[in-house]
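tool_call: predict_structure(chain=1)
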Amino acid sequence: MSRLFKFLALVMLVAGLAGCQTVKGVGTRIERAVDKVMGSKGQRLDPWESWNRKVFAFNEKLDEAVLKPVATAYSEVVPAPIRTGIDNFFGNIGDAWSAVNLLLQGRFKAGIEQGMRFAVNSTFGLAGVLDVATEAGLEKNSQDFGKTLGKWGMGTGAYIVWPVFGPSSVRDSLALPIDWQASPAVVFDDGRKKVAISALNLINARANFLRAGEMLEGIALDKYTFYRDAYLQRRGSFDDDDEVEVLVPGNGASAPAADPGPTAKKPAEPASAATR
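tool_result:
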């Protein structure tokens, strides 16, 4: 648990930078550097489509062969209330990181509310296993460093599909290593425990979307295009409203939906293989 206290100290330190007036300038400089590599802003957002489709197909096969069967067995063995508690635990850690990002985005009221949500669930919700904060009116507002870079003015950049981790973009790929530092595994010091908790996070998230994934199989004529357009639409939006996500089987545990539907739910955590 000492690692958790170190993480919380880091949270407060980073949050203190939220008032710095140079933040937006940093985001602008990063965006300019990426523009030099990627070309003009008018360049189409999927210049590597041929390669991305190959990675997408690989991820689909990996999901069908490994992740989906494991998640199916997990959902049959582990009762739903326990899976919900695990979701809440992971989501509670994500709330602390969301609070930091909201503060860095200049959304101080929302950031304070997320910090209160984390404190309430950590104290009265058995380290976040019980989501008592929602009952108290403190709603989840999931954020990550990629969204923060967007708030600072950095464009989404070209669409990328990474092996195992799934859909991303230039901006979100740059933010991913920082988001990893705030993943649920941060509360553990032992390397094997870090791997185990990350695997549990992925499998639990995949199990929760088994039915949604099956329903999506019959919705999209071109799954790659559907997931790409939904991802870019969500990641390019910076409204204060909560977003919705649906499963992307084999391409990260979840991805955003363009419109809420019967298969959509509010996000608990970037549900890719690492954090998202």
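agent: Confidence is low (pLDDT under 50) at residues 12-24, 34-43, 239-250, 252-276. Proceeding to next step.
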